[in-house]
Design a protein that fits this description.
With 169 residues, this protein is α/β, with parallel strands linked by helices. Helix content is 36%, strand content 20%. It has helices at residues 14-27, 43-48, 65-73, 96-106, 124-144, and strands at residues 3-9, 32-37, 51-56, 83-90, 110-111, 116-119. Bound molecules: flavin mononucleotide.
């Protein structure tokens, strides 16, 4: 049974709302999913997951240092080859999700491109975009459990990135 873990850092709930919507998308494809704040994430859950989605909002043009340390610590969880996805809410520059994806790639993970960034509080259309990413993650992990020679129907990976609104650059 494929399993996905969604880990987030969120100071005022914006990235958490994204994490919950991504998980909803994963669950809608009948894939087991859990959502957890990064400081409550358990290494054994990360180890047993087929895919890890990690989200962080951007502060002072980067992710907060504890999140960076958490991702670096995943080297011990043998995440090489697992599917990764990066996301996060931002205000004006939005570097954190890009940095998360870079760290995931450095760990040998297969990262879904592009990262998903939403400006400030996600609107309904943004949450739909998050659900879409969740469905794409589910489709990716299901591939691993498909017997060679069978002919599964997989929906194509969609472009996730939400365009920066006014004030973005
Ligand atoms: C002190 C502070 C610094 C911030 N620095 C940045 C920044 O450098 N770039 C950016 O895009 N957003 C920045 N933001 C905006 C947050 O990323 C944004 O409010 C985001 O929606 C917070 O999401 P969260 O509730 O998931 O933490 C900053 C916000 C605060 C309060």
């Amino acid at each position: 049974m494929p399993k996905v873990v969604v880990v987030y850092l969120s100071t005022s709930g914006n990235t958490k709302a994204m994490a919950d919507a991504i998980a909803e998308g994963v669950a809608s494809r009948n894939v087991d999913v859990s959502v957890v704040s990064f400081h409550e994430a358990k290494m054994e859950d990360i180890k047993s997951a087929d895919s890890i989605a990690i989200g962080s909002s951007t502060f002072h043009y980067k992710m907060l240092p504890p999140m960076g340390k958490f991702i670096d610590s995943l080297a011990k969880a043998n995440v090489k080859g697992k599917t990764g996805a990066a996301f996060g809410s931002y205000g004006w520059s939005g570097e954190a999700p890009v940095m998360i994806a870079e760290k995931m790639r450095a760990l040998g993970m297969k990262v879904i491109d592009p990262v998903l960034r939403i400006q400030y509080q996600p609107a309904e259309k943004d949450l739909e975009e998050c659900k879409r990413l969740g469905k794409d993650i589910a489709n990716e992990v299901k591939k691993k459990y498909t017997k060679p020679g069978s002919n599964p129907k997989h929906e194509p990976i969609s472009p996730h990135e939400v365009k920066m609104g006014e004030g973005g650059h």
